[in-house]
């Protein structure tokens, strides 16, 4: 996601302290399972090491992918904290630039551009094709996006989106039916997050999370996939969305990609799988700014063994 107006800076002072996450591991049989957020856990019992819901998944579909404001596509291996360039997107966008990205279970990227268009992109070679998605449905043009499985017990998944109006302003949660390219509104977020912009990440065990553009620091919250209601809000002390931001959930942890001004992105990790500390995983990703990150529902939901 990219916003032309600077929201705030990324500050690492005070980072690294352990805090409760406020989220719950999906319970057996699926469901969102909002929980009490015991320290070192995603609520409830500490999850056993797991590869997640990976039936039929390729190795490529288990990686994170990011897209830059310069139309460059990269893969990201969180366990090694390394980025690998795949290629340049050459979508017929008429000058519009990438805004956000989601990865489906087959490893295909779906990229929202700044003019509201939605393109399909290969994560193998960055080749691009247009879709029949109509811009501006329910006022959604730029949006945050992610896939999540419909429950912990299925590989069926849904593409969720959050409409973005401007710095800090959002339109709530919706979903896109990729068979019809129709967008359906689901509802706004709860409490102080109502009307707030967000990026999304989803999991293979039926959970959806938002990275919200609150100030001075960003907020992380779990999102009910049926209504948009939020739960388990956490103030990400020391982490602000800046004007280019994205995030992903991989291996039981959250990975935030943020940039202030024109600076290259920084990667920050929230260790939700262990002590819930926040620390810098990579200060400078290289000569690019990340505006979209996607991870499929094939990705591991707990630290790899």
Identify the notable features of this structure and list them briefly.
single chain, mainly beta, 4-stranded antiparallel beta sheet
Topology (SSEs and partners):
Blueprint: E1 64-68, E2 72-77, E3 82-88, E4 98-103, E5 108-113, E6 118-122, E7 128-130, E8 143-149, E9 157-166, E10 169-177, E11 182-187, E12 198-202, E13 208-212, E14 219-223, E15 230-235, E16 244-250, E17 253-259, E18 266-270, E19 278-282, E20 290-295
Antiparallel strand pairs: 1-2, 1-20, 2-3, 4-5, 5-6, 6-7, 8-9, 9-10, 10-11, 12-13, 13-14, 14-15, 16-17, 17-18, 18-19
Q: Supply Rg.
A: 17 Å
The CATH H-level superfamily is: Kelch-type beta propeller
In DSSP terms (H or I, runs of 4 or more residues), the helix count works out at 0
Mind describing the biggest β-sheet?
4 strands, antiparallel
Shape: globular
- Total E-strand runs: 20
The CATH class label is Mainly Beta
CATH fold group: Neuraminidase
Characterization of this structure:
With 305 residues, this protein is mostly beta strands. It has one domain (60-295): Kelch-type beta propeller (Neuraminidase, 6 Propeller), CATH 2.120.10. It has strands spanning 64-68, 72-77, 82-88, 98-103, 108-113, 118-122, 128-130, 143-149, 157-166, 169-177, 182-187, 198-202, 208-212, 219-223, 230-235, 244-250, 253-259, 266-270, 278-282, 290-295. The strands form five sheets. A four-stranded antiparallel β-sheet has the order 3-2-1-20, with no helix packed on it. Strands 4-5-6-7 form a four-stranded antiparallel β-sheet, with no helix packed on it. A four-stranded antiparallel β-sheet has the order 8-9-10-11, with no helix packed on it. It is built from no helices and 20 strands.
């Amino acid at each position: 996601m990219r916003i032309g107006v600077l929201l705030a800076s990324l500050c690492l002072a005070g980072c690294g302290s352990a805090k409760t996450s406020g989220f719950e591991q999906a319970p057996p049989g699926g469901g969102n399972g909002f929980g009490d957020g015991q320290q070192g856990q995603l609520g409830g019992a500490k999850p056993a090491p797991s590869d997640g819901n990976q039936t039929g998944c390729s190795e490529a579909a288990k990686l994170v992918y990011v897209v830059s404001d310069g139309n460059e596509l990269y893969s990201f291996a969180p366990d090694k904290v390394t980025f690998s360039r795949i290629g340049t997107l050459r979508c017929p966008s008429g000058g519009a630039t990438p805004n956000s990205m989601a990865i489906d279970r087959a490893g295909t990227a779906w990229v929202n551009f700044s003019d509201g268009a939605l393109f399909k992109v290969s994560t193998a070679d960055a080749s691009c094709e247009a879709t029949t998605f109509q811009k501006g449905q329910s006022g959604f043009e730029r949006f945050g996006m992610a896939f999540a499985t419909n429950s912990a017990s299925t590989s069926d998944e849904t593409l969720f989106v959050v409409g973005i109006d401007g710095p800090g302003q959002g339109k709530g949660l919706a979903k896109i039916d990729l068979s019809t390219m129709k967008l359906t509104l689901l509802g706004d977020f709860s409490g102080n997050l109502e009307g707030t912009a967000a990026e999304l990440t989803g999991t293979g065990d039926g959970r959806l999370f938002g990275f919200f553009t609150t100030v001075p620091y960003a907020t992380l919250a779990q999102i009910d996939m049926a209504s948009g209601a939020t739960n388990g809000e956490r103030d990400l002390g020391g982490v602000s969305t800046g004007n280019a931001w994205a995030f992903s959930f991989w291996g039981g942890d959250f990975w935030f990609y943020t940039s202030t001004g024109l600076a290259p992105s920084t990667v920050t990790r929230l260790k939700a799988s262990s002590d819930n500390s926040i620390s810098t995983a990579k200060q400078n990703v290289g000569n690019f700014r990340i505006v979209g990150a996607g991870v499929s529902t094939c990705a591991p939901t707990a630290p790899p063994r």
